Amino acid sequence: MSVDESNNVKTRLQVHNCVVQPLLTDLYQITMAYAYWKSEKTSDTAVFDLFFRQNPFQGEFTIFGGLEECLRFLENFSYSDSDIEYLKTALPPTIEQSFFGYLKELTAKDVKLYAIDEGSVVFPRVPLIRVEGPLIVVQLLETTLLTLVNFSSLMATNAARYRMAAGDNVSLLEFGLRRAQGPDGGLSASKYAYIGGFDGTSNLLAGKMFNIPVKGTHAHAYITSFSNPSELKTKTLINLNNGKEQDLIDLTLSWRTTLSNLLHISESQASDGELAALVSFAIAFPEGFVALIDTYDVNKSGILNFCAVALALNDLGYKAIGVRIDSGDLAYLSNKSRETFIKVANEYNIPWFANLTIIASNDINEETIWSLNDQKHSIDCFGIGTHLVTCQRQPALGCVYKLVEVNGTPRIKLSQDGSKITMPGKKDAFRLYGADGINIQDSIFL
Amino acid sequence: MSVDESNNVKTRLQVHNCVVQPLLTDLYQITMAYAYWKSEKTSDTAVFDLFFRQNPFQGEFTIFGGLEECLRFLENFSYSDSDIEYLKTALPPTIEQSFFGYLKELTAKDVKLYAIDEGSVVFPRVPLIRVEGPLIVVQLLETTLLTLVNFSSLMATNAARYRMAAGDNVSLLEFGLRRAQGPDGGLSASKYAYIGGFDGTSNLLAGKMFNIPVKGTHAHAYITSFSNPSELKTKTLINLNNGKEQDLIDLTLSWRTTLSNLLHISESQASDGELAALVSFAIAFPEGFVALIDTYDVNKSGILNFCAVALALNDLGYKAIGVRIDSGDLAYLSNKSRETFIKVANEYNIPWFANLTIIASNDINEETIWSLNDQKHSIDCFGIGTHLVTCQRQPALGCVYKLVEVNGTPRIKLSQDGSKITMPGKKDAFRLYGADGINIQDSIFL
Predict the structure, then answer these.
(1) DSSP one-letter string for B201-260
(2) Which of residues 101 through 140 in chain A touch B, CB cutoff 8 A?
(3) What reaction is this protein's catalytic activity (chains A, B) (predicted)?
(4) Distance (Å, rounded) from C-alpha A146 to C-alpha A139?
(5) Whole-angstrom distance, CA of residue A404 vs CA of residue B44
(6) What is the CATH topology of the domain spanning A9-160+396-445?
(7) Which of A11, A64, A71, A190 could form a disulfide with A201 if both were Cys (CB 3.0 to 4.6 A apart)?
(8) Helix H segments across A167-217?
(9) Range 405-434 of A in CB contact (< 8 A) with B
(10) A39 neighbors B232 (Cβ within 8 angstroms)
């Protein structure tokens, strides 16, 4: 269903993504269902454990994500008529036709799902989800549950690692939609980055669907689309101090000349197209002015043009928010920008100018943040894309879904690879806490 | 829209995935649109190039994917009422309300899109897509077009590399849904792996939506859910030679004893649960019997049980298809299996038995295939999951969308990083072919 339609659906748990449906699975789940059905195993019951064997990113923890989507999936589990028609073509013609009638009636109403809370820190081999119910149905759920948990948990874990690297005083924004693994890869990334500790996303649909704060400024294309202040058709802004319209271009140009001397930056090297773009953006967003300052040269153009616009806005009663730097040596450029802001703040006695927000983007990964920390930087906010949303260091989590009991009897999968041998039997997992409220260990009991 | 609903939609190009919609974009596209609108740039025109700077996987080529989805997106580009309502909350309250009326009317009808054919081999810096039209609209398309092209092209390229490694005589199946980056990551992977040269997928929804051949057998859980042949309620199969029902268990057990001597495999070490599972699966799929043979031990159990069932099926007039091996030393186990098949074929004069299909899976990547080639193997088909669908070696392609012209005037983005400087101006790309029909080079002309 579309996002619009889903708002009107009356079921308690709604499916966010139209492709999350019973056919989002491997064919072999259906062939197994048929073989079980043919073997008259429709009343057999089974227990499956969903768990992973190793923390991702060579790390020491994982954040469990995807549970809500699993519950939505179970709540809505039912094959549509067109699913059944398709399955008739996908399976061999020797299949008994009454099997399709059986499939059509299947729901997950007899399935019990036990799970750790979504967003919890979890560890290898402890079942994140235990699924009990009719053997055929719980087997049919396997692939979709794994799809929903694997990337969600990986993403939340990755985000949490970025948060640990950045510390609590830096804002983290997810900017990765364009590099994500497909449209929904991007949406999932936005959602689970937020669960993992990010502050917002650039992804509007994620904002609409999941109520995540959405942030953004402008692209280099916006800056390069302007050539000169003379081309601006809208030049004025209301002065909040007196309610009168005032020419923001003149004011900005005047400030640029003044600042050029203070900051020892040649006005002739600063881009007039960039100035025009920033003025036009300030007229559009006078209350929330954030400027991309690296289109031409941060030190020779961007910082001068930004400060000129910000001071002009200040004259009219508006506080600029800050700058974004999307290339170059981010430690150096952020420190240089901070120095400039402090200098301007002191020179004109505008204390808040010293604390303007500095946002850094450009292919940032966990190591970049640790390295910037070592170098000392003045960045208040990271916009993080590719490495975050594709989990570049390890793009898949290996959750598995293993049969541990059939009709009350434990089951095991042996393997020549010892790590792949399953723990048979229905288990409960407990987390033990010390008197100080800190958890000591997870224990599994049969 | 849902898959079902999309079948009923009358538009020529339909959106496959409900999340591909104008809000699947970065907020800054909308803030830029407002700033352009506020600057009275609604009649400005622009040209953007969509291209990448480097082939993925340290390779020498890229396969272009995603064009069809881009066209669908353009065809359907329109903000819904609820999109507009959401945008009113996502943008600052100072936004002039008439901007939302302007947005509501926007379509991509004045946009021209030039592109290289989908599925083509493409190279760095040559525009894959050139988009011309109203500045505001073509800017608004950026993120979604990049999202649709980046992963599609990466995936098709990755698949093509697996095809080159495997050669033309080996079948390649995509098995990665459960490890993909979200539900749609899995769907995109199935689709673009097929475009890149795979033969099929395990993903049923991909089969239904894109008409891709779907393949699959059963999981280890199917095997471990059986304990003993005595538990089988359905034991018989029709003998195609005489039309009579015959007990497949008895026949299989008898063959197992016979084969045990021929193959020097102790019957007592072979799993009876595995035998029961394989017999039940053969009864369900007598015409398409493929068996997973590594649940317990390929050499001590799986191969013996499989051959016993396959020979029993043969007695009743059915030809088994083959085996899947999902763990262990795939070169050794496949060669050992092939030797066994040849031995059985010769012993009982069943020539086709020597050519039974051997499918290998288990965390296979491009290097595994090259290494198996070096070791010599007997694998006919690879089932490939995680590494293929998440493009583990490089999980993102870096396509960019750069402004190259505004109102007929070329535009450039400078950068301290020389590789990031754009080529200004509207360009045409030509591929030059030699007399032998082989392409010599791509050329770009202004």
Answers:
(1) ESBHHHHHHH---B-----HHHHHT---GGG-S--EEE-TTT--EEEHHHHHHHHHHHHH
(2) 135, 139
(3) 5-phospho-alpha-D-ribose 1-diphosphate + nicotinate + ATP + H2O = nicotinate beta-D-ribonucleotide + ADP + phosphate + diphosphate
(4) 12
(5) 64
(6) nicotinate phosphoribosyltransferase (3.20.140)
(7) A190
(8) 182-195, 204-210
(9) 406, 409, 411-417, 420
(10) yes
Nearest CA to B61 out of B130, B164, B148 is that of: B164
Asked if A227 and B409 count as a contact pair (C-beta separation under 8 A), the reply is yes
- The whole-angstrom separation of Cα A438 and Cα B101 is 54
Alpha-carbon distance of B225 to B222, in angstroms, equals 5
b/e for B49-69, b at 16 or more Cβ within 10 A? bbbbeebbbeeebbbbbbbbb
Q: B240 CB near a chain A CB, below 8 Å?
A: no
Q: Which of A18, A147, A406 sits opposite B18 (nearest CB)?
A: A18
CA-nearest of B183, B66, B72 to A185 is B183
Nearest to B68 by CA among B137, B184, B149, B181: B149
Residues in B touching A302 (Cβ below 8 Å): none
Does position B8 have pLDDT exceeding 70, yes or no? no
User: How do the domains of chain B map onto residue ranges?
Assistant: 9-160+396-445, 220-384
Report pLDDT digits (tens) over A157-183.
Answer: 999 999 999 999 999 999 999 999 988
Q: How far is B228 from chain A (nearest CA, A)?
A: 13
- Dihedral sign from CA coordinates of A86, A89, A90, A92: positive
For domain B220-384, the CATH architecture is Alpha-Beta Barrel (3.20)
How would DSSP label each residue in B338-395?
HHHHHHHHHHHT-GGGGG-EEEE-SS--HHHHHHHHHH----SEEEE-HHHHTTTT--
Whether B38 and chain A come into contact, CB under 8 Å, resolves to yes
Q: How many CB pairs under 8 A join A and B?
A: 401
Give, for A229, the enclosing helix (H) or strand (E).
none
What is the DSSP secondary-structure string of B67-116?
HHHHHHHHHT----HHHHHHHHHHS-TTS-THHHHHHHH--STT-EEEEP
pLDDT in tens, A262-313: 999 999 999 999 999 999 999 999 998 999 999 999 999 999 999 999 999 9
HSE, CB side, 13 Å, CA atoms: give it for residue A299.
Answer: 11
A227 burial type by CB count under 10 A (0-12 exposed, 13-18 middle, 19+ buried): middle
Distance, in Å, from the CA atom of A394 to the CA atom of A366, rounded to the nearest integer, reads: 12
**CA-CA distance, B202 to B175, in Å (whole number)?**
5
Q: State whether A327 and B420 contact (CB < 8 Å).
A: yes
B78 — phi, psi (to 5°)?
A: -170, 135
Residue A398 CA from chain centroid, whole number:
19
Q: How far apart are CA A21 and CA A12, in angstroms?
A: 16
Q: What are phi and psi of B172, to 5 degrees?
A: -125, 125
Q: Which of helix, strand or coil describes residue A197?
A: coil
Find the length of chain B.
446
End-to-end CA gap in chain B: 41
CA-CA distances (angstroms) from residue A111 to A15, A138, B79?
Answer: 18, 7, 40
- Helical segments of A264-329, H only: 272-284, 303-315
Estimate to the nearest angstrom the gap between the alpha carbon of A426 and the chain centroid.
Answer: 34
pLDDT score, position B16: 61
Contact A48 B221 (CB under 8 A): yes
Which 8-state DSSP code applies to residue B270? S
Predicted local confidence at residue A425, as pLDDT: 87
Query: Is A42 in CB contact (< 8 Å) with chain B?
Result: no
Angstrom distance (rounded) from CA A61 to CA A126: 12
Min CA distance, B41 vs chain A (Å)?
A: 9
CA distance A101 to chain B (A): 17
The pLDDT of residue B432 is above 90: no
Asked if A406 and A44 touch (Cβ cutoff 8 Å), the reply is yes
Rounded to two decimals, what is the model's pTM? 0.92
